[in-house]
Batch of 3 targets.
Target 1
Amino acid sequence: MRVPALLAFATVSLAGCGAPAVSLGGGAREYVATDYSNVLERWTRTESLLLFDELTRALTVTATFESWDFRWAYVIRYGQDFRVTIAERQEMLRRQLQKTRETHDVFLALYGSADKQNDLTRPDSAWIVRLIDSTGNETPPMDIEAVRNPGALVARFYPYNNVWRKAFRVRFPTMTSDGHATIAPTAEWFGLRFAGPLGNTDLTWQLVGER
């Protein structure tokens, strides 16, 4: 007997119920290189979509939202690893923080049962991805770039990626065409929604403090 359609899939959180709340606020940070792992964990979420009627895992996705806070820690870690000069680090930090004003960027890695259809850049992909928030905003990406040959840099900064996953960089606009923020100032949370014929799952970040 097949499981009824409404019970055929379920979303399972691998990040746990205790995922920390985050802030999209700016301002200076006082990070050292060893802080990067904790900051990465704070801005990373993982979810799985299970198909109980087929006893398969349709999708597992891990995503890091590259916020102001994340990028600050990233630059400090990068500067330590590559021994860049103070001037080079300051310029890199300026460029990285400017990106947060222009786009909402996400690095993600996924795998699932329909491997050939897990390429988000293909028109026949089994999944679409949207930026969502608690106010009802739902925004399609402006660009999806496949990370075809992830090297040492990706392995260092996004260690959850591996040879069984497909990695992507996804960019969303910070503002809609009519001038509204894609993550509303009043939003209690924001997230990523993956949806397709096999089901849907959301990765969410609870918001606290200054936006």
Target 2
Amino acid sequence: MKKIFSLILVILISVSAYGDTIQGGVSERGTATSSRIVDKETGKGISGAQVSLPKEGYRTKTDKYGYFELDTSIDGTSIMSVKKDHYKPFTMTINEKNMSSPIVIGIEKSNGADISIDTNMHHLGDNSYSRLSANAGEFQGESAGPFYTQKFMLRNINIHKPAYLVIGSIIGIDTLMARTMGQNMNPNAYSSPPEVYFNGNKIAEIQINGDGQKIKLPPSLIKKNRINEITIKTGRNLMQTSYVDYDDIEFMNLIIEN
């Protein structure tokens, strides 16, 4: 896919998703020749932030004023990652158009309750997909299978405050809704949505590709000071009935926010 929408829609099972993304974001258009990473609250440049494009295998760091340049070509849509100690890991989808001029990206400081579950790129599915599939040209690795599971400890979480799972970026979803939005160019097939489980309970279905998907965790499912588990299952091609054809998707950056 050569086009990705910033519109994000998460349909939840028994809980509601909030539209605000507090994981960071493009805060303003830059005016210099270089893009910049800044503290979202103070606006000051952040030095030594690691900026990478996993698909392209490219990595660089910001200078002492927070400026950086992407000295590599971007083929279609890609995922850019920003990491810095004491800040929430941040990802966003980029392409030639929105990186044709400098941007300023504001990232947020972590608090004691934030938990970075995983900052790596993951590919789910069966490595069998049409080149017309959403973002197929951007897939960067072999599939790990139809589902992803990660266990983690929740020590400092406040069960009296809302807690959220934030998915930094996700591409490759071929649902009917994604096709309607122009994200999937395959006219003959569409898939069921990826499903998100928390401690064995389904809490969300993800219908559209995008950044900063935010899912509220049901308080009754949270296990404070114990091991918790997140599972993401990819969808299936609903037009294929003779065998199971898994939808190939990729996602990056999972955070619990409280």
Target 3
Amino acid sequence: MQNNLLAGKKGIIFGALDEKSIAWKTALQCHAAGAKLVLSNAPVALRMGEINKLADATEAPVVGADVTNMDDLKKLFEEAQKHFNGGVDFILHSIGMSLNVRKGKSYTEIDYGFNQKTLDISAMSLHRVLRTAWDMDAINEWGSVVALTYIAAQRVFPDYNEMADAKALLESVTRSFGYHYGVRKKVRVNTISQSPTRTTAGSGVKGFDGFVNYAEKMSPLGNASGDACASYCVSLFSDLTKYVTMQNLFHDGGFSFTGVTQAVIEQMEK
């Protein structure tokens, strides 16, 4: 329970697929903290996932939206404003998809058509969401937008493939739009660079178990869980972080600033 940290606040959660999803866990914690929600995902994800169960648990309507379609996003914000009888206080962008990863293509031989779709869905979708909200004046003053990213935007993880480029673009959109939205309406925009987390989407990356095990050994505090990330999201949606914006915030148990650990040394010396 988050002690009503979000009491009176209203938000849109993108990307909850199943109980493993960080978006799913975040929706539950936001609801427990007193927020009212609207849930959204792509129509195909709504058919594949279990979002209606989450909707029941959080007393939230589900509005399908293709995040590459401006008309869909406009309809989503219209429905959200109608449901909330006003604007939105926070948004979680938990969206990522790589066709090249799905098709097993290595980074050196990516299909550029697939790549364009990956960048559009995984990164420019945040720009589209913010642009739609901007045009409709849909986010309230001192609102908060959070998008989920990964440290592969800064460091090479070979099997993370083109998603590394997508995350780098996502973080750039966060900084650039964060500036404009901050000046205009005190809306803050940040990314959370989360530990590798065993979600349905994350588990599809080649060598994912190796990612998780290595990060666990390299992190002084260990890997941050999906539930812990959800708690961090709640804090960023709250008024306790009103002056944090345009940041890429590492939530990874210290992995991002650790050169080597004794556990890794011992593993290499075996």
